[in-house]
Design goal:
- Helices cover 40% and strands 16% of the residues.
- The chain is of the alpha/beta class and 270 residues long.
- An eight-stranded mixed beta sheet has the order 3-4-2-5-1-6-7-8, sandwiched between helices.
- Helix 1 (18-31) crosses helix 10 (220-232) and helix 10 runs parallel beside helix 12.
- The chain is globular.
Length: 270
């Protein structure tokens, strides 16, 4: 059996949508592409992944694993949305984050994809995610403060020799004051693989502790997550919604993120 891939989702800034991205990619990969998926909350001091998915009071967590109190498999929960999750303790316990890589490496044999939700701070926690990952995705938003932290995240990943597959540009409002995709790609020297609009539906889905890809699978955000998830496994997702088909007839030019995903798919299939 082929070994599963570990993909870290990082950002050295809170509030950009990192945890939302982990939950949605996990849901799409498991439900639409039939992959065996494990989500791990590696944000040790301020975990949110469990809260996003309704796992509020887990008896055993990643903190217990890193403390040596339980085996890693004892902290795995079978989620109703089709994937597995290892939550973290909401009340922080002192652990050594750098043990993460060793504790989860055996899980590769059981999963196709393992997604790590990292800390938003430049500390040992995010370094642990970088060290434990085969590849990384960096979540950013189209503003200068976030761009500066994105550049730092990409720089650190390169220093640690963990490949960055690309950027996820989130909370885009299409306003003139926002940085453009081209601006961000040029500064980070990294391709943008997905562009996600800012929309209240994401918060609405969160209220139901449900990824938006399951709350409203036809939403523009859901479709973009699905296209990204497909590219990560070397597949292409065709948007079959009526208006999307019409646009393809009259506007044949691919968006920059579509082109970048095509290139990633080619790379994955070599």
């Amino acid at each position: 059996m082929a070994q599963g891939r570990i993909i870290g989702i990082i950002s050295i800034k809170g509030g950009v949508g990192k945890t939302t991205t982990v939950a949605n990619l996990g849901a799409v990969l498991a439900n639409q592409f039939g992959k065996k998926v494990l989500l791990i909350d590696a944000n040790f001091t301020a975990p949110n992944l469990g809260l996003h998915l309704g796992v509020v009071k887990p008896k055993v967590t990643l903190h217990d694993v890193l403390s040596g109190n339980v085996n890693t498999v004892d902290a795995i929960y079978n989620h109703e949305y089709g994937f597995h999750i290892i939550p973290a303790s909401l009340v922080a316990k002192d652990v050594d984050p750098l043990k993460l890589k060793e504790k989860i490496k055996a899980l590769r044999s059981y999963y196709d994809i393992i997604l790590l939700d990292s800390s938003p701070n430049m500390n040992e926690e995010v370094l642990a995610t970088i060290a434990a990952s085969d590849e990384l995705l960096v979540v950013t938003t189209p503003d200068y403060p976030t761009l500066s932290t994105t550049l730092n995240a990409v720089k650190v990943a390169k220093q640690k020799k963990t490949p960055v597959m690309g950027l996820i540009l989130n909370k885009v409002r299409n306003k003139k004051f926002e940085l453009t995709l081209e601006d961000i790609e040029y500064a980070a020297e990294t391709p943008v693989l997905a562009v996600l609009p800012d929309h209240v539906s994401v918060l609405e889905a969160l209220q139901f502790t449900k990824p938006i890809t399951m709350h409203d699978e036809n939403h523009d955000i859901s479709v973009e997550y699905t296209k990204l998830a497909a590219a990560l496994i070397g597949e292409k997702h065709e948007d079959t919604r009526f208006m999307s088909r019409v646009k393809r007839i009259f506007f044949r030019d691919l968006s920059k993120q579509d082109v970048n995903r095509e290139l990633l798919i080619q790379k994955m299939n070599k």
